[in-house]
UniProtKB/TrEMBL annotation:
It comes from Ceratopteris richardii. The keyword Cell membrane does not apply. This is U-box domain-containing protein. ARM repeats lie at residues 56-99, 182-224. Pfam families: ARM_PUB.
């Protein structure tokens, strides 16, 4: 996102009107200048975010997402993201302007990876409130787009995808949609790669999926039990805690999960957790041990 300056003079009506006219112009350089400046101003202060929205920028920025100019699209999606920083009214304004389809289109087909990742971050912001979550989750193609970015995004992009998925998968009927879109394999890869610092984030999403039949099957098919057992062996304390939680949910409803975990040596690892794990991990480990008897 754009750089913030240390201070920001109050926005006056004439400047905002000029920026709106640039976005309306249909001229690439004018649109680019308007979107770029709005991106910068929206990041500077909460009062700017209010004034920019009141000037009518949100529908114009959403329209600019369809621009043939890579740079216009990039600055427009970033401006929209900045406008939602600690501003619920602007989030609501984006939904009322029916902007979700355009945002998901950038997520899936954005001309720059930065644009796709800013779209994911924006969807995370929009899905944070319970009242918005169902609307966001119902947008066609959202889970396919998130799954694709989870596979090929940067660490920052993957973090935003995981956060958006965590929000959206609070809705139970979205869990099979995410599984069918292909999120399980890249989530397990994130759980296996401690260098990205996203092990716990991926496990919290997998925890939501593990309780659903399709999610459980997909995790098992992707060697997820082995991944969880490996985390119990070598992960951090928090990794072990989350891995235990996922494993417990899997084993509750599927004997095959329990059998595979036993074959991988999970019992000794659980015994170790009962002695040295966090309090939550100890509770989960004890419950798994009961299931394995």
């Amino acid at each position: 996102m754009g750089d913030a300056s240390p201070s920001c003079a109050p926005l006056d009506h004439s400047l905002l009107e000029e920026l709106m006219n640039r976005l309306r112009s249909g001229i690439h350089d004018q649109e680019l200048g308007g979107a770029k400046e709005l991106r910068r101003l929206a990041k500077l202060s909460s009062s700017n975010r209010i004034r920019i929205s009141e000037a009518g920028a949100i529908p114009l920025l959403l329209k600019a997402l369809k621009s043939s100019g890579t740079d216009v699209q990039a600055h427009s999606i970033a401006a929209l993201l900045n406008l939602t920083i600690r501003n619920d009214a602007n989030k609501q304004a984006i939904l009322l302007a029916k902007g979700l389809d355009s945002i998901v289109d950038v997520l899936k087909k954005g001309k720059l990876q930065e644009s796709r990742e800013n779209a994911a971050a924006l969807l995370f912001n929009l899905s944070h409130a319970n009242s918005h979550r169902m609307t966001v989750a119902s947008t066609e193609g959202i889970f396919t787009g998130l799954a694709e970015l989870l596979r090929d995004g940067s660490a920052r992009g993957k973090r935003d995808v995981a956060a958006a998925l965590f929000n959206l998968l609070q809705i139970r009927h979205c869990r099979p949609l995410a599984v069918r879109a292909g999120v399980v394999v890249p989530l397990l890869r994130l759980a296996q790669d401690s260098s990205l610092g996203l092990v716990d984030e991926s496990l919290t999403v997998l925890l939501n999926l593990a309780g659903h039949q399709e999610g459980r099957f997909a995790i098992m098919q992707a060697s997820g039990i082995r991944t969880l057992v490996d985390l119990l062996r070598r992960g951090s304390d928090s990794n072990k805690e989350y891995a235990c939680a996922v494993l417990l949910v899997l084993c509750l409803d599927d004997y095959a999960c329990s059998e595979e975990a036993c074959n991988l040596g999970v019992q000794e690892l659980l015994e170790n957790l009962l002695v040295s794990g966090t309090e939550r991990a100890q509770r989960k480990a004890a419950k798994i041990m009961e299931l394995l008897k």
